[in-house]
Write a structure and sequence with these properties.
Layout: H1 4-18, H2 25-29, H3 36-51, H4 55-79, H5 84-97, H6 100-103, H7 111-132, E1 147-148, E2 155-156, H8 170-183, H9 191-210, H10 214-234, H11 239-263, H12 268-325
Antiparallel strand pairs: 1-2
Helix pairs in contact: 1-4, 3-4, 8-10, 9-10, 11-12
Length: 326
Amino acid sequence: MPDAPAAFARLLTIIQRLRSPDGCPWDREQSPRTLRAALLEEAWECVSAIDNADDRNMEEELGDLYLLVTMMAWMKEEEGTFTVESALAHIADKLVRRHPHVFAGAARGNAEQVLVQWDAIKAQEKADRAAAGGFGAAAGDFRGATVKHAAGGAPSHPSSLDGVPASFPPLERAAKLQKKAAKAGFDWPGPQPVWDKIEEELGELRDAVQADAHSDIEAELGDILFSVVNLARLLRVDPALALHRTNMKFERRFREVERRLAAEGATPVESGLDRMDALWNQVKAEESASGDAESASDDAESASGDAESASGDAESASGDTQRTSK
């Protein structure tokens, strides 16, 4: 029978050995700060494995994430900030506290109602900590009576936007800021006004380009990206995952263009844009046709399933009739 606690204990023991005075010099030199990039990289590699339905690779990437997260927690235990046990206890307690419908006999709702409940409990926890005058260093929430503006450093009152780390990648930070503002009631009524806003921002970008004003160009591009993130949120699409998917698609198609050029004995530079564009469109059309074929196959399977279901319903109705006659 699988023994997850024993497996985790073994991982922690290995990490402790690697960080010991006679352990690995490289591991001993690392810190949570030096491992930040690796944490992001492994998380995205895990996302890629999920996208590709590659369970074997996903298992490996999750293991890498366990390693990094556990090692960072052990580093903090070494310096006396907090312990591996306290980090695990913190998340376990929070899960129990924020799921009263599972652990405390509260009424169960649908997924959307549960999410609203989660946010309400989270907000109450934040208010309770503020009233108590203290916050945990790992909480990631507002930590005191005032905060500093990112730009000028002037103090401000607690904000609905508190708790969004400045270290977040810009795309993810934009999405998080918008979600928090929306929860405070500052939101678009629907996607259509955002479409209009994007059109407005595109016009302002064109004006900035025509004026050759580099600072304005950067600002207007930022406004467009921010508006697109807003649109993604209202369409219930994660913008980072959407861009990740497009990156994968671009890489796949361009690599195939390069492969076909190599089969012709040519390089991209030698072939020129027109030839590469023609091959790109060819690859795109083939992928589209393949996708249509898969969709048609899925539809056929669905139709077959419907027919089987209808047949089953007919058999069930027949059985019901026989039972009634008896």
